[in-house]
Write a structure and sequence with these properties.
The protein has helices at about 1-15, 80-95, 160-165, and strands at about 25, 35, 45, 55-60, 65-70, 100-105, 105-110, 120-125, 130-140, 145-150, 165. It has about 170 residues and is α+β, with helices and mostly antiparallel strands.
């Protein structure tokens, strides 16, 4: 009996050992958090053209590159449809910055964690080095968060846990 129990425990350990572990990380002192498969180590601070504070970080795990960009808007936007359009404009800017050569097109109207006070955009990109990207951008009118993952192969479905893992202050 003991031997079969030990064998079962050992087998379960072997099966579940390679499972991805996701951890919660603060996005610097923004009040936002993100759930990631790898440690972003440090968030860089910068300012956008309109002087909004921007935090960003990247990390890599299993040949998948993960990135987070979180902007605390200097001028919050009360109308969530307007905030979503501002988010789309930000994604347009990032496409140039990341040297994206093709995109599927924005899927709009998503809600972060079914929260009606948020809006989200999803898109699939290919960059000049033929990396495949999956991007989700979120806003609550006070923040814009962009989460992305890219890899040389097809982006696996497991990255959706990360792409949906942004938490705005108070969420």
């Amino acid at each position: 009996m003991k031997r079969s129990s030990l064998l079962l425990i050992f087998s379960l350990f072997i099966i579940y050992a390679p499972a991805q572990i996701i951890k919660k990380y603060p996005v610097n002192k923004s009040g936002c958090f993100v759930y990631m498969f790898c440690d972003p180590a440090k968030f860089d601070e910068d300012f956008s053209q309109d002087s909004s504070k921007v935090y960003s970080a990247t990390c890599t795990k299993d040949e998948i590159h993960y990135g987070v960009i979180c902007a605390k808007l200097l001028k919050p936007v009360d109308d969530l449809d307007e905030a979503q359009e501002l988010t789309a404009s930000y994604l347009d800017y990032l496409k140039v910055d990341f040297e994206i050569k093709s995109a599927v097109g924005y899927g709009k109207g998503n809600h972060l964690n079914n929260n009606e006070n948020t809006r989200g955009i999803v898109d699939y990109w290919t960059d000049k080095e033929n990396n495949n990207w999956k991007v989700k951008a979120w806003t609550d009118g006070k923040f814009i968060g962009v989460l992305y993952a890219y890899t040389k192969t097809e982006v696996p479905d497991k990255v959706d846990v990360f792409l949906n893992g942004l938490r705005f202050p108070g969420m």
